[in-house]
Write a structure and sequence with these properties.
The chain has 219 residues and is mainly alpha-helical. Helices cover 58% and strands 0% of the residues.
Length: 219
């Protein structure tokens, strides 16, 4: 099948990609620190370069606040005076998103990892706008999907890079491109079943495709 051949040809460094996807689905990104996962999602939501901006800033926060014990849980992030970290990240919207998500998740369970995974696995795409996380001002569908992925849900986020690469493949295989977000997510999930990959692998494949030189810097 032409579609599968095209996707196979884009699956470079598949062993590394699969390992990263496994870590994501096991809620093990950022050494399993859920606070950093939440910040990752909140900073990424602004639309800046992930590898050039978000990753370095998260690492600085990790060194200054996580490794020193100043922030040690979602509960402490929920009460954090983020002005203390303005020298790292000045976007108030991002901080609001991060602190509000932390406030909500810290009520789900006393264990941060369990909180994220319980929320993710009890959230449903079809009803996403009514989800407590999605109702937080500044959280859109892309951010919502990203956090669900880190919470263990095998899905895809419809950001511009994912859409560009997947739609280019669809066009080359003589299929119609898909631009509407919900329909795009469902299309990728069907595509994954047809080609023998997981939706999350197709998602990460597109980022590998666009940022192959930066993969070694993945947290």
């Amino acid at each position: 099948m032409k579609l599968k051949k095209l996707i196979d040809s884009n699956m470079t460094n598949f062993n590394i990609l699969r390992e990263i996807c496994d870590r994501c689905l096991n809620t093990e990104r950022w050494q399993g620190n859920v606070v950093l996962m939440v910040l990752d999602m909140a900073f990424t939501s602004v639309g800046v370069s992930y590898f050039n901006v978000v990753v370095p800033k998260i690492k600085i926060f990790q060194n200054e606040f996580i490794k020193t014990g100043r922030i040690n849980s979602l509960s402490s992030l929920a009460q954090f005076n983020y002005k203390e970290a303005f020298h790292i990240w000045k976007n108030i919207r991002s901080w609001h998103v991060a602190c509000e998500i932390a406030k909500f998740l810290s009520t789900v369970s006393e264990n941060d990892r369990e909180s994220l995974r319980l929320w993710a696995n009890n959230s449903f795409l079809e009803n996403w706008m009514n989800d407590p996380v999605a109702k937080i001002k500044g959280v859109g569908l892309i951010s919502y999907q990203y956090l669900r992925m880190m919470g263990g849900v095998d899905t895809v986020m419809p950001d511009k890079i994912v859409k560009k690469v997947i739609n280019d493949i669809l066009i080359q295989a003589q299929y119609e491109p898909v631009y509407e977000n919900m329909r795009f997510i469902k299309t990728v999930e069907v595509l994954a079943k047809k080609t023998g990959y997981r939706p999350i692998e197709l998602c990460w494949m597109t980022w590998f495709h666009e940022n192959s030189a930066k993969i070694s810097e993945m947290p």
